[in-house]
Write a structure and sequence with these properties.
This is High-affinity Fe2+/Pb2+ permease. The chain is an all-alpha fold. The chain has two domains: 96 residues, Four Helix Bundle (Hemerythrin (Met), subunit A) (Up-down Bundle), CATH 1.20.120; 190 residues, no CATH class. It is built from 14 helices and no strands. The protein is elongated.
């Protein structure tokens, strides 16, 4: 018995000394390194270096992810088991020479799980959920507000023309547009889930399209004169429908006017949903709050006929829209990097490391390419705003001079 106790004591001391001598493992850092190595392995595979790509993918799992497994296995064992299979599928696919598109899809699932694992370890914090909720609120409220103002303009014309019997056609057209928007969301979600391309490539293309629309929206919102012209154009179309006495034409005009806003909403939410990741429920919370705000807006507009202070509201929407565009540019470039289409110049260790949720929602990734793209986008916005203000002064200058002389 005495010898047994001595042996046990020696084993305990040996285990304690090994534990004290072992280096401290940073689980988030190991997960980020695994993420970078997966991206690197895809680039190597795309360049034809299949053996090196296999070794890089194996290193991502054996040399980094395995060190992060112990705490994650306690917190979410199902996620760890799923990721082990995904890592294995990626390595086996590389050895079998599978098409790059199939490997990109597997890698996209691994990267999404790595981000989820990092959020489990680090926690979601406060800023990430706040950004997701703010994005969810702003997108729906901006598009919904524009739709409400357009419908208010249609009803205002119908009231002046004393054609109140046509109101029902407008409501039917608006309702059909909302239904079509919901169907578009469901169809887009389904198609993107079964698309034969990688998740990163889908995210990249969606982000690029969203940036183009957001950029045009930003300057369109600043130009109230353009908005007035669009309202006048819509009223002219309504006038033609009213004079022709066609309820179908009036409903169609309303449908196309509202559905355009709905289609943009679906596109923006698809891009934001990819960026939200583990904090996606907060995006839906923001959308729910925006729905309540829009209900109040509709009641004020259509029940009480109150005018909204849009002149004060639009500058705020312009700022938020510009921030979304900058964030989506960063995410788009990052998605192209993960798909192996753009090179990566890592700045890990040289820049402060952000929470993964915050990084995804702001587009601030520690690579030279993503930050450069965002810098160019900010510069374009600054130049555009300066040009817009200069053109506004030039347009109002002669008028102001004539008024002063009078």
């Amino acid at each position: 018995m005495t010898l047994r106790r001595v042996v046990l004591a020696l084993l305990m001391l040996l285990g304690l000394s090994v534990a004290l001598a072992a280096p401290t493992i940073s689980v988030p850092n190991e997960l980020r390194t695994a993420h970078e190595l997966i991206t690197q392995s895809l680039r190597e595979y795309a360049q034809g270096n299949r053996e090196q790509a296999f070794r890089t993918a194996r290193s991502a799992y054996l040399d980094h992810f395995e060190y992060a497994e112990p705490p994650l296995r306690v917190l979410n064992p199902d996620l760890i088991l799923e990721m082990e299979y995904r890592f294995s599928d990626l390595r086996n696919g590389m050895q079998a020479g599978q098409p790059l598109g199939e490997l990109q899809k597997i890698a996209g699932e691994i990267n999404g799980s790595l981000r989820k694992a990092e959020s489990i370890v680090s926690g979601t914090g406060v800023l990430g959920p706040t950004l997701a909720a703010t994005g969810g609120f702003t997108i729906l409220f901006r598009e919904g507000l524009e739709a409400a103002l357009l419908m208010a303009a249609i009803f205002a014309y119908l009231d002046t023309s004393r054609n109140t019997r046509l109101r029902r056609a407008v409501w039917w057209g608006g309702g059909a547009a909302l239904l079509a928007t919901a169907l578009t969301w469901g169809l887009a979600t389904y198609v993107l889930s079964i698309a034969p391309v990688s998740r990163e490539l889908i995210s990249a293309v969606t982000s690029v399209i969203a940036v183009v629309i957001l950029f045009s929206l930003s300057f369109w919102l600043m130009q109230q004169s353009d908005r007035k012209r669009s309202v006048e154009f819509m009223r002219a179309r309504v006038s033609q429908a009213v004079q022709g006495g066609s309820l179908l034409a009036l409903g169609t005009i309303t449908f196309t006017t509202i559905y355009r806003e709905g289609f943009e909403t679906v596109l923006f939410y698809q891009a934001l949903a990819v960026a939200s990741g583990p904090v996606l429920p907060y995006m839906y919370l923001g959308a729910a709050l925006a729905t309540l705000a829009l209900v109040v807006t509709f009641v004020l507009l259509f029940r009480f006929g109150r005018r909204l202070p849009t002149a004060r509201l639009f500058p705020v929407l312009v700022t938020v829209t510009a921030l979304f565009a900058v964030a989506f540019v960063g995410n788009g470039v990052r998605a192209f990097q993960e798909a192996g289409w753009i090179g990566v110049t890592n700045l890990y260790g040289r820049l402060p490391t952000l929470d993964p949720n915050v990084s995804a929602l702001t587009g601030l990734h520690p690579t030279a390419e993503t930050l450069a793209a965002q810098g160019v986008m900010v510069l374009v916005y600054v130049i555009g705003i300066l040009w817009f203000r200069h053109s506004q002064r030039a347009a109002h200058g002669p008028v102001a001079g004539q008024l002063e002389r009078r």
